[in-house]
Amino acid sequence: MNKNELRAAETKKNLQEAFLQIYTKKEISQITIREITDLAGYNRGTFYLYYHDVYDMFQHVSSMAD
């Protein structure tokens, strides 16, 4: 992996961890992208580089658990 790929992987991991932290307290329909990005320390544009919406992120996180 090159430097950019490592950075992208770390960013995705941080966003996913923030999502999971929120998901333990709220239903997915109540989670906002702003909450995820604020907790992870990124802007909303960064979220959209990797995911279409909260449900897309949920799918990615769920598929990793399988």
- Tell me the number of helical segments per DSSP (H or I, 4 or more residues long): 4
- Mean pLDDT metric: 95
Structural class: mainly alpha
Largest sheet: none
Distance between the amino and carboxyl termini? 24 Å
Oligomeric state: single chain
- String of helices and strands: HHHH
**Spans of at least 5 consecutive residues with low confidence:** none
β content, as a range?
Answer: under 5%
What's the alpha carbon Rg, rounded to whole Å?
Answer: 11 Å
How many strand elements? 0
How would the global form be characterised? globular
Secondary structure: helix percent: over 70%
Describe the overall structure.
It is a single chain. 17% of the residues are buried. The protein has helices at 3-23, 33-40, 44-50, 54-65. The model has no long low-confidence stretch (mean pLDDT 95). α1 packs across α2. The chain contains four helices and no strands. The chain is mainly alpha-helical. The protein is 73% helix and 0% strand. The N and C termini lie far apart (24 Å). The protein is globular, with a radius of gyration of 11 Å.
